[in-house]
């Protein structure tokens, strides 16, 4: 549910794991206020006011186009930077088509990079996760987000290599980052760039 505080729209998300209130800017909602389960919502407006300057600056930076919201009509075609090709949005169930394209193109990409890195995932799947680009579980199964198709090729490669490196290191320790840097020497720059990459994904893709 979207609420508003003097020109700032925000969504409230209750988290059983949250110990304090956190603010984050994430598509497609924009500003999301994450609160503990027993937190009083009546306190949220004052928190919004305290962080108003940061919120407005961040929203202006990541959402320069005020007309880029979910009410904008669906375009006829959409460019997929990862593949340097276009998706026809006039066909029915285009999200299913998006997943099919990701399955056809991203999965072979993972296998290719895994061979180069000498890493062997148990399986590779494509999903439409809301907040993460990919994951690797304890069984070595890698899952990638179909929205990666909206990212530039070098960022897709970074995400794939990141998850492949979790086959060797299950955490984000110094050893993990050192290992990732061996297969992606520019990983530090890519890591920084991908922090705002979610804004490349159009609202209809959620």
Mean pLDDT: 88
Largest sheet: 4 strands, mixed
Number of DSSP strands?
9
Low-confidence stretches: 66-70
The number of helical runs is 6
Q: Which word captures the global form?
A: globular
Helix content estimate: 25-40%
Structure, explained:
The chain has 206 residues and is of the alpha/beta class. It is built from 6 helices and 9 strands. It has helices spanning 44-50, 52-62, 94-117, 153-165, 174-183, 187-194; strands at residues 2-5, 8-15, 22-26, 30-36, 77-80, 85-88, 123-127, 134-136, 141-145. The two termini are 16 Å apart. It is globular. Residues 66-70 have low confidence and may be disordered.
SSE layout and pairing:
Elements: E1 2-5, E2 8-15, E3 22-26, E4 30-36, H1 44-50, H2 52-62, E5 77-80, E6 85-88, H3 94-117, E7 123-127, E8 134-136, E9 141-145, H4 153-165, H5 174-183, H6 187-194
Parallel strand pairs: 2-4, 7-9
Antiparallel strand pairs: 1-2, 3-4, 5-6, 8-9
Summary keywords:
206 residues; alpha/beta; three-stranded mixed β-sheet; 22% strand
């Amino acid at each position: 549910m979207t609420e508003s505080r003097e020109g700032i729209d925000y969504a409230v998300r209750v988290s059983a794991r949250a110990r304090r209130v956190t603010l984050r800017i994430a598509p497609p909602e924009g500003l999301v206020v994450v609160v503990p389960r027993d937190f009083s919502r009546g306190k949220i407006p004052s928190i919004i006011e305290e962080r108003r300057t940061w919120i407005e600056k961040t929203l202006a930076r990541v959402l320069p186009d005020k007309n880029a919201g979910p009410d904008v009509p669906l375009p006829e075609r959409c460019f997929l930077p990862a593949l340097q090709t276009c998706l026809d949005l006039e066909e029915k169930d285009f999200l299913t088509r998006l997943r099919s394209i990701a399955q056809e193109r991203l999965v072979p990409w993972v296998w290719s990079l895994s061979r180069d890195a000498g890493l062997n995932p148990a399986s590779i799947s494509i999903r439409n996760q809301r907040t993460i680009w990919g994951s690797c579980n304890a069984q070595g199964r890698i899952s990638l987000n179909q929205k990666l198709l909206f990212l530039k090729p070098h960022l897709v490669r970074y995400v794939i290599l990141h998850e492949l490196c979790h086959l060797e290191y299950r955490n984000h320790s110094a050893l993990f980052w050192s290992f990732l840097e061996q297969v992606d020497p520019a990983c530090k720059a890519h890591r920084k760039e991908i922090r705002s990459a979610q804004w490349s994904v159009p609202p209809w893709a959620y």
